[in-house]
């Protein structure tokens, strides 16, 4: 099913409209020139994601996002702000993108927020794993995983925030009772970090709990 995007975009923009490119990427896009028109359109158009181009509206976008949230509390919102926006006020959105950025980056952020209606897809936080295609997507990173790495990541994603002991994790992924030597697990964790993390030496998602095991913070 084609994902639906509500794009709130003004005419005072110093950058090209995102609408045509989003259509080319396969989205169904409805464009509105301001927050009021966007709120009215929610009565007939049920978007999967709302993109608020605050930079083109010459506003912070905070009030628009608050109004959208009041109408649909679980609405996925991407807020686009201008170059060097400075400290941003606390605003209840899923993603904030500061110009400039590529359309590829925008579509990646949107796809992560889309509802998952396929049992082959597993999504936890910013981590999106296609089990059938063995494709990993996390923030702007994409990688093709080996079957073993898919199994390892799947187990971790099924237990987010839970410390999994090394022996237990090795037993679950390799389907063996022999857990004396789990160095193979450490190597696979290292490979998985290269796929997941911007800086594998200082992981944000896949954490080591010293002396115990590993935890996925997604």
Structural write-up:
The chain is an alpha/beta fold. The chain has two domains: 110 residues, 3-Layer(aba) Sandwich (Rossmann fold); 96 residues, Winged helix-like DNA-binding domain superfamily/Winged helix DNA-binding domain (Arc Repressor Mutant, subunit A), CATH 1.10.10. The protein is 33% helix and 24% strand. It contains eight helices and twelve strands. The chain has a five-stranded parallel beta sheet, sandwiched between helices. Strands 6-7-8-9 form a four-stranded antiparallel beta sheet, covered by helices on one side. Strands 10-12-11 form a three-stranded antiparallel beta sheet, covered by helices on one side. The chain is elongated, with a radius of gyration of 20 Å.
Quick take:
The protein is 33% helix and 24% strand.
**Topology as a string of helices (H) and strands (E):** EHEHEHHEEHEEEEHEHHEE
Unreliable residue stretches: none
Span of the ends, CA to CA: 27 Å
Strand proportion: 15-25%
Estimate percent helicity: 25-40%
Number of strands: 12
Average predicted local confidence, pLDDT: 88
Largest sheet: 5 strands, parallel
The Cα radius of gyration reads 20 Å
Q: What CATH first level of the largest domain would be assigned? A: Alpha Beta
- Name the CATH superfamily assignment of the largest domain: Response regulator
- Structural domains: how many: 2
User: Pairing-aware structural class of the strands and helices?
Assistant: alpha/beta
